[in-house]
Amino acid sequence: MSKLGFSKERLRRIDRFLEERYVAAGRLPCVQLVVSRRGEVAHSTVLGLRDVERGVRCTDDTLFRIYSMTKPITSVAMMMLVEEGAVALDDPVSKYIPEWADLGVFTAGTAGAYLTRAPDRPMQIVDLLRHTSGLTYGFQNRTNVDAAYRELGVGELPARLTLDEMVAVLAGLPLEFSPGEAWNYSVSTDVVGYLVGRISGLPFQDFLQARIFAPLGMSDTGFQVAPGQEARFAACYAATPQGGLKLQDDPLTSAYLQPPGFYSGGGGLVSTAADYLRFSHMLLNGGSLEGERLLAPKTLKLMCANHLPGGQDLTMLSRSLFSESTNAGIGFGLGFAVVFDAPQTLLPVSNGEFYWGGAASTAFWVDPLEEVTVVLMTQLLPSTAYAIRRELRTLVYSALTDSNA
Q1: What's the CA gap between 88 and 210, in Å, rounded?
Q2: 196 and 188 in contact (C-beta within 8 Å)?
C-alpha cells in the first residue's frame, strides 16, 4: 500500500486493463492517465501511439485537444469576475449583450421563419454556467433550432464564425425553451467566454493566459499549438463501426497549428495531462495552488453545488441527446457535473465529486471527500464510443485502501 492510501498492485491493474481492453485492441490510439491524492501523484501511465500513422509513441508531454474540458476553465474565469463584483450570477445576460433583450422561445417554424413566444423570465448569467439558458448545439440533431445552428455554423469547430459573429447570429435565433426550464448541453460556455472578454476589457484568450494559465504554470495550454510544440501534438481519431480507428485530424496539418478565428470557451483549448492536473489541484485546494489564489473556497463550494432547478438530476431535467454525463444522481454546478446522490449513480463515487469530459474522450474528476483527482487524456471521437470513464471510476476507487468517508 502506498502512503497515499492506494494499493500499488490494484493501480497497476488499471494499466493492464487499459492496455488490453483499449490500446492493444486498437480501440484507442493512446492513453495517458494520472491519479493523484492530496496533491501528490499516486499513479501515472502512458500507453500507445499519439500518431499511429507515423508510429510516434505517446509521452508525458503530449499535447491533446481537450474540447469541452475547456468549459470548467472558462467557468472559473467568469467566477473570478463574479468575486470582483464586476458581474452577478442573477444579472440578465442582456445587460451585457443588449442585442439579446428580445430573444423568444421557439414554438414553430423552419429555416428562418420562426414563431416564438416571450420567455417566462430573462436569461441570467447562472443559466449560461449551468446550461439552462435555452441555447443548444447544432450536433444535437434534435430540433429545428439545432438545424439552424448547423446551417449558420454556430458553435462549430473548426469555425466558420468568430466569437463576436456567433453572438450576433444568436441574437436572431430562438431559444429552445425558457431559461431555467430545462437543461440542454449548448454553446452557453462559448457565450460565457465572450462575456469574460466584454466584462473584463481583455480579449478572452488574454484573460485566460494572464489570470489562469500563467499563475498556475499551465505553460502548455492555449488555443493553438505554440511554435516549437508541434512535434508533441497528438493525432485525433474517429471510432469506426468495426471498433477501429480512422484519422480525423492530422497533427501535421491541423487547424490547431494556427491561431483560431473562433476562441471557443466551450471547446477550443489544447493542453497536457500535467497542465490539467495543476488546474484540477487548484480546484481540489479550494481555489489556490502554490500560493496563487484564483478563487475563494466559498466560491468553489458554490460552483460545486447542484444548481439544477428543484434539486433535480440530469436524467430528470435534460433535453439533450448528447452530454458528457448521463448518470442518475448527477446534477450540474457552475461549470461541471456534480454528484449529489452517489448511490443513484451505481458507481463508487462520493457526494460532492465534480467532473467533466471532452469530445475526444478526455476526462477529469475531482473528489474533495477522498482528496482524489484524476486526469485522462486520449484522442478518440466521439466520447460516447466506449464506457471508459465509468470503468475508470470503478478501477480507481477499487485501488483506494483507505477512505475519508
Answers
A1: 22
A2: no
Q: Which residues contact 136 (CB under 8 A, 6 or more apart)?
A: 142, 143, 145, 146, 149, 176, 184, 185, 186, 187
The grid coordinates of residue 287 equal 481555489
Strand-pair category, 363-367 with 372-377: antiparallel
- One-letter amino acid identity for 285? N
**Phi, psi at 389, each rounded to 5°:** -70, -45
Query: Angle between the 70-83 and 188-200 helix axes, to the nearest 10 degrees?
Result: 40
Contact 119, 178 (CB under 8 A): yes
* Pair 328, 311: CB distance under 8 Å: no
> pLDDT digit string (tens) for 248-271?
999 999 999 999 999 999 999 999
pTM of whole model > 0.85?
yes
- The DSSP code for 92 is B
What are the C-alpha distances in Å from 55 to residues 15, 17, 117, 290? 21, 22, 56, 38
Instruction: Provide φ and ψ at 233, rounded to 5°.
Output: -85, 130
Residue 306 and residue 290: Cα distance in Å, rounded? 28
Contact criterion met (CB below 8 Å) for 104 and 118: yes
What is the per-residue pLDDT across 112-168, written as a single tens digit (0 to 9) for each?
Answer: 688 999 999 999 999 999 999 999 998 888 889 999 999 999 988 888 899 999 999
What's the CA gap between 327 and 302, in Å, rounded? 21
